[in-house]
Design a protein that fits this description.
- With about 375 residues, this protein is of the alpha+beta class.
- Helix content is about 20%, strand content about 25%.
- The strands form five sheets. It has a six-stranded mixed beta sheet. Strands 10-9-13-11-12 form a five-stranded mixed beta sheet. Strands 5-4-8 form a three-stranded antiparallel beta sheet, with helices on one face.
- α1 (about 15-30) packs antiparallel against α8 (about 355-380).
- Residues about 110-125 have low confidence and may be disordered.
Length: about 375
């Protein structure tokens, strides 16, 4: 029966002795079933599950040799620089020079330009000491040559036309044309690079590796396996792992309007969790990664709390297929040899299960504060 005690004018009701005894028995029963009541995940894989396939990692489930770094370069080659030719566009600034006739060169202030726009339809401001700017309609005016169509043409083509037109006024004109300012064409570099920015397309071909260098290189969180190149409304996949191995067919020349997007490696990671010394998410490398690599990333399995019998690799199925759970019993040190020959894939989850004793201790640690509270109440 409960008892009433009075201390300092305050009444306390002690818990019945039978109640305390029953509570102790319940706590003991829960402790004995600690694995059932323990907090956290309990990964108990079964072979007869309809949701996944359970595969024990043995000699039949691993590679014959340890997972090694694979060179993904398929061929050396690609677009040739010799075939590349820059095409002039609106707002490019051209530097035109007529040898032995400085009065006709853009390096000099041309005083012989026609009247201002309105009387002749020509904008005198197109020709300055800095050069001649290609207008938005793709043309520019040049003294004694008149209106010249420049957009979409090479500087060599423009040079030949100017030479032909100036020959009427100058004997055997020697004309040179080069682009002084590249303003008409750009490619965008976005995503996981240090300095995302637009890059001008110039007379020298800008390839993907050059673009990455000009934007400060990839960040630590960049996806180093593949990138997306948006060109003309289509998306091209750039195999970055193959490119870094020397496959120059992936090192495309960027064109006007291209968007190169370097995505985060969030969707190309291997997650290491459970009873490891450090939960980790490691970037996946297409060139080869083993189960041992993942365990090292997690600073090894916990020697206190882990169950060496329960090292799992969880892998989602593709195309409606069931998921697969691979299980490795690491109670024997030779299992490390199997782990070194087991290849991982992107988005695998490596999970180390908890030992039964550790689960039991965690239940006890949860029950003890409650029992201490009941004991404290019972002392009143």
């Amino acid at each position: 029966m409960s008892q009433k005690l009075s201390r300092g004018g305050i009444k306390f009701i002690t818990a019945p002795v039978a109640f305390v005894r029953n509570l102790t028995l319940v706590a003991s029963a829960l402790a004995l079933t600690g694995c059932f009541m323990a907090p956290g995940a309990d990964l108990t894989a079964r072979k007869d599950s309809e949701l996944y396939n359970l595969v024990n990692i043995n000699e039949a489930a691993v590679l014959p040799e340890p997972v090694a770094r694979e060179n993904l370069a398929t061929t050396l080659g690609g677009e040739s620089d010799e075939m590349y030719q820059y095409r002039v566009g609106p707002h490019d600034v051209l530097n035109i020079r007529v040898w032995n006739h400085p009065e006709l060169s853009t390096s000099m202030v041309i005083s012989g330009a026609p009247a201002a726009k309105g009387a002749s339809g020509i904008d005198r401001g197109q020709v300055t000491s800095e050069g001649v700017e290609v207008q938005s309609d793709g043309t520019f005016f040049y003294p004694f040559a008149g209106q010249v169509q420049a957009s979409g043409r090479s500087v060599e083509s423009i040079r030949r036309e100017l030479t032909s037109k100036l020959a009427t006024f100058v004997k055997d004109p020697q004309v040179s044309v080069r682009v002084q300012e590249f303003n008409s064409q750009k490619a965008q570099i976005l995503g996981e690079v240090d300095e995302p920015c637009p890059l001008p397309i110039t007379s020298k071909p800008t390839r993907i590796l050059t673009a990455l260098s000009l934007t400060g290189g990839l960040t630590e969180t960049a996806d180093k396996s593949e990138a997306r190149l948006i060109r003309g409304g289509k998306v091209l996949t750039i195999n970055m792992a193959s490119l870094f191995d020397g496959d120059m067919t992936q090192n495309l020349i960027l064109r006007d309007g291209d968007v190169l997007n370097i995505d985060t490696n969030r969707y190309q990671q291997i997650v290491v969790m459970g009873e490891v010394n450090k939960v980790a998410a490691m970037p996946y490398d297409k060139r080869g990664m083993s189960l041992n690599d993942a365990l090292v990333a997690g600073s090894g399995i916990s020697q206190i709390y882990s169950s060496a019998k329960g090292v799992y690799i969880l892998r989602n199925g593709k195309g409606g297929e069931k998921a697969t759970i691979y299980r490795l019993d690491m109670t024997n040190a030779t299992a490390l040899l199997l782990a070194e020959r087991f290849p991982l894939q992107a988005r695998d989850v490596v999970y180390v299960d908890t030992a039964g004793v550790a689960r039991w201790n965690r239940v006890i640690n949860q029950i003890l504060p409650s029992m201490s509270f009941v004991s404290a109440v019972n002392t009143f």
